[in-house]
Design brief:
- The two termini are 17 Å apart.
- By secondary structure, this protein is α/β, with parallel strands linked by helices.
- It is flat and about 80 Å long.
- Helix content is 46%, strand content 17%.
- β1 and β2 form a beta hairpin.
- The protein contains 14 helices and 13 strands.
- The strands form two sheets. It has a seven-stranded mixed β-sheet. A six-stranded mixed β-sheet has the order 9-10-8-11-12-13, with helices on both faces.
- The longest helix has 35 residues.
- About 3% of the residues have low confidence.
- α6 runs antiparallel to α7, α6 runs antiparallel to α13 and α12 runs antiparallel to α13.
Amino acid sequence: MMNDTIAQISSALGQGAISIVRMSGKDAISIANRIFDGTNLEKVPTHTVHYGHIVYKNKNIDEVLITIFKAPKTFTVEDIVEINCHGGVFVANKILETLLLEGARSANPGEFTERAFLNGRIDLTQAEAVMDIIEAKSDLSLSLANKGLDGEIYKLIVDLRSDLLNIIAHIEVNIDYPEYDDVIELSNKIIKPKIIDLLSKINKLLEQASYGKVIKDGVKTAIIGKPNVGKSSLLNALLREDKAIVTEIQGTTRDIVEGSINIGGIILNLIDTAGIRESEDLIEKIGINKAKAIIYEAELILFVLDNNQVLSEDDEKLLELTKHKKRIIIINKTDLNKELYHSFENSIAVSALHKTGINELETMIKQMFLSGEVNITDQTYVSNARHIAKLNETKESLNDSITAIKNELPIDMVEIDLKAAWNVLGEIIGDTSSTSLLDELFSKFCLGK
């Protein structure tokens, strides 16, 4: 597979000014040269651009600019050819088809980046950061992804592994030269404090990871409440557009309506649910069941109450259902004359119809998830779910080693837990990654990257 020359369209499919078809591998330049009417590409210097036409079987396909990148100073550490053609699905696909007929193979999702990793050009955290940059939806998430691409996460993990290796080295010396140290003294005075210090560093990373995850993935936010309390009006007010249908008829929203907004660098993935109440209407009941499922999945609940109605049994049930979730109680319709002044912790009064109180609500949400200033410039935040899971695994192994020391188990048993932690940290940067992990990870990339 690594000996194949791969090709794929790297730009988004659709009409536009320019499309890019990329090829990587030992035969990339010779394949391109066979279909290029212009300069002899096999004799040009690296990192140069050349004008000409793509021609196949004496038929002109397109007027192009071809850029030549020669190994090893390329993204994949292989020869790379990039063909800039006119935008359009048909033209780009025709050029790709011609490259495949000439001996290239269609690249799998993420295969260019995977080759960069396998050839030592980038580590696994940098490979994942490439996709994070593509998927970034805010300035903060873009800055976070660039920190990963610059190798900041890699350095963080390498430092942790270095600390672990230092501890393991102390144990290895004791195993090889047991006459130099008392085992109990070695464990309690030297090894244990170092493990506790390492645990402290990992705990700090995991505490800050919640910030990173919010910045990267956003917050899954469910807007819930009884029918006709103003949920859809609130969604429209937050989105600054009329996305959801608003009427005075109860049960208008019968399915899920979604949208996203950027609040000070946090992406809120908003879901307007069907009004939750007892109903005999089959379609409405399906929407209500969906709404209940979303409540369990949501990271933030915006619970809307009508300021002009007393709390009903349905309201009480929803309050009970969401009491352990992060939530904000929104007292809506404060523009009407009749006011009951509901009072709850983490509540705010708004008029979704007139868009009053919306800015204050957005400020409250930001403070709830990013308390204090997030310093992307000076601080490295772990945001990737896989990395967070591996750090938790590492923490578990280190805790096991502390337990082994407390129980005065043989020092080589402590070492087993420490080596397990060292290996798990290696999986974050790809030092001990399995083939199945790489296949799963890169399959999530877009084609041509």
